[in-house]
Amino acid sequence: MSAPKGLPLDGLKIVELGHYIAAPFATRLLADLGAEVIKVEPPDGDPVRGWGSQKDGHAVWFSVHGRNKLSVTLDLKSAEGKKRALQLAKRADALVENFRPGQLERLGLGPEALHAANPRLVIARISGYGQDGPYRDKPAFGAIGEAKGGLRHLTANPGQTELPPPRCGVSISDDLAGMYAAMAVASACWGRDRPGGDGRGRVIDVDLVSSVFSLMEGMLPEYGMFGWVRQPQGAALKTAAPTNTYPCADGKWLCIAGNSDLIFRRLMPAIGRPELAEDPRFATNGLRCANVEELDAAIAAWTRTLPAAEAEAALEKADVPCSRLYDIRDCAEDPHFHARQTVMRVEDPLLGPVLHPAAPFRLDGVEPPSMVRWTGPAVGAHNDLVFRELLAGEGGA
């Protein structure tokens, strides 16, 4: 079940001891790039298989979440399960896990044991707070990463106190940690194997909180130098104007970014207010930021007269950056998404035809559909292949 020609990680062998989101997201990215990923699940399967909508007892999300992975089942608390996990690690380039800190050690599968089996093994560990520090043993899910990492504070609307700041709608902390882990795994394998590399397997420590915190742009140096604490800004951008999201006649919203001088001068005639383009109060971005309420009111007065799609078309004709706020239907039906095969129809043996998002990278010579070798399999679908063929072929059975 090798990868199509042209995928850069073809031949890289990964073991996933992951559950729920972060580690499986990391290995999905690696698998999309051609790596062989063996996903080790408990006998009753990854708990995420019970999440979301189901068809014929199979989770629809898992079609994507588990794609391109070989699923095997092991009871890691048993002697046989531990033995086979070590055999898998012995033939692998990397292992990715997201147990709570210390759990892998309690199972007898900590870095010391894994490196005794395979000194070249790269071990990526994803947790809520990291493998050390005073919060190491605290439980954490994605929402906690958003909260502790500083993101949830920023998602509030300014001045709103009666409702809590909303989550972004997806498990962004887990996804970010998974992306960073995938990048670190590929980097560590390169560092190990490159000319002059030491051939040593490294331990990678990725946590949800730090992954979110890494997105805080200039906020930390600003606080350290000036004591500034960035506050929620809602849909606007405090340092550029006009950039905001405006209500339309059909109840939808239109995001408009008219914040350069040239774009601003195209935007104002497009909304029927050409005189504002020549108004000295709006001559520069700094002046527009100082008078942004008047500009936002003028733009919103125009967008409220049109359905979002019509307003978007009018501004696109004027070469003004804008977009309706897409929901998943908009994404699934957009011609650009289909032209770039960002949305693909895939045949899933467990579900039938299902829509998949393409991998978020394009490689010349590789068509996006070919990167989906197979969809998320049933629990333990590859036990015989892995334990009777792959391990036996390397003397591990």
From TrEMBL:
This is CoA transferase. It comes from Craurococcus roseus. It comes from the Bacteria. It holds the Pfam family CoA_transf_3. InterPro entries: CoA-transferase_III_domain, CoA-Trfase_fam_III, CoA-Trfase_III_dom3_sf, CoA-Trfase_III_dom_1_sf. GO terms for molecular function: transferase activity. Keywords: Transferase. PANTHER family: SUCCINATE--HYDROXYMETHYLGLUTARATE COA-TRANSFERASE (PTHR48207).
